[in-house]
Amino acid sequence: MGQTIGVKEIEYLAIGAAVLGTGGGGDPYIGKLMAQKAIEECGPVTLLAPDEVPDDALVVPTAMMGAPTVFFEKIPNGDEALHSLRRLEEYLGKKAFAVMPMECGGLNSTIPFVVAARSGLPLVDADGMGRAFPELQMETFNVYGVSGTPMVITDERGNWCLVNTVDNHLLEYIARGITIRMGGVGHIAEYPMTGKEMKETSIHYTTTLAINIGKAIVHARERLENPLEGMGKALAESNYGEPLVLFEGKIIDVDRRTVEGFTRGTVTLEGLGTDAGSHFKVEFQNENLIAYRNDEVVATVPDLITFLDLETYKPITTEGLRYGYRTICIGIPTPPIMRTTEALEIWGPKYFGYDLPFIPVEELAKNVKRGRS
User: Fold this and answer.
1) CA 8 to CA 211: how far, in whole Å?
2) CA 253 to CA 256: how far, in whole Å?
3) How many C-beta atoms surround the C-beta of residue 51 within 10 A?
4) Nearest-angstrom CA–CA distance, 291 and 303
5) Which among 115, 157, 206, 249 has the fewest CB atoms less than 10 Å away?
6) Which residue ranges make up each domain of the chain?
7) What is the mean pLDDT of residues 111-126?
8) Quick one: pLDDT at residue 371?
9) Is 237-367 in CATH node 2.40.390?
10) What is the pLDDT at residue 214?
C-alpha cells in the first residue's frame, strides 16, 4: 500500500516542487533539510495514491503561511505544523488518517513530510493548488465546496489560534492578520475533509510529479543533457502541459518588499542569446503572476511562470531573485481543473487586480517571436 519516500526522494522533491511553485511556497532548501531530518529520525513516509484513502477517513492539509522572505529570519523549530494538526484533531474529536500538502510549491511541499514523519501518518499524493498561490481560499478545495475551517495556526514560540469563519475568504483575511502578528509566518492545519472530498476536489499525483521533475533536472545535469527534455517527459505523464521557454536573460532589477504578510514585487530582465535586444518583466505576490515580453503579456496566473538558473536549471524562488542572475523563464500550462470558470474567479488575473483575460500560456506562446526585437 503506497510507496516509500526517503531522504533521496525529498532531494528531488525540493527541486521539482520549486519548479511547480512558480517562485513561491517558501524556501525549498530549508524545507528539504527539515523533512530529511524528520525522516532520518522517525523513518520514511508512506505516500498514498488518492484512491487508497477510505471515503470516510479524515484528511488534513498542513503548510506554512506568510511572507517567504520573513522565513529566512524565522527558522522554525520543525514541530509547529504538527502541533497545529494535533490541536485540530482535539477540536474535531477525531484522529487524522493522513495528511497532505495544501499546495505544490517549495517549502509547502516538504512541510507535510515533516508532519507525516513525526506523526507516523501517511501522506496523500495530491494537493489543492497544483502550484503555489498566496492566499488560503485559492485552493481547489475551496473552489469545489470544502470549508477551510476549523483551522489551527501555530508559531515558533508556541502561540496558537483556532479559527472558525463563515467562509474561506474571511478565513484568509483573519488568518493573515494573525500571521502578521506572529511575526509574518505561521504554520497551519486547515481544510479538514473526508477522503471522498479529497478525491473529488484535489489535484492528484502532484507529489510524484514534483519528484519526477526534480529527478529529471538532477540526472540531466549529471549527463550534461538539456533538463527541459526530461521535465517535458515528466509533465507529459501528468495533466500539465509541456514547458515553454518564454525568455532567456539577465536580471537587471528586482523591486521586492513585504506588504501585509506577502512578498510583492517586480523583476526585470534584459535578453541574452536569441532574446538579446528584448526585455522581460514578471510581477509577483509570493508567486509569479504575470509575465511581459517587450510589454506584451506572454503568461498569466494560474499558468506556471518559473525562473531557472541558466547554468544549473535550478529553480529560483521570488525571494532568491538577485541582480545579475542569468536565468531562463519557462511557462507550464496548468491542469483543466484549474482553468474552469469557477477556478478562474478565485485565482485568475482579474482577482489579483489585472484587467486581463486568462489566455492559456500555450496560446500566448504562439505569438512569442524569440529573437532581437
Assistant:
1) 10
2) 10
3) 8
4) 11
5) 157
6) 3-206, 237-367
7) 97
8) 52
9) yes
10) 95
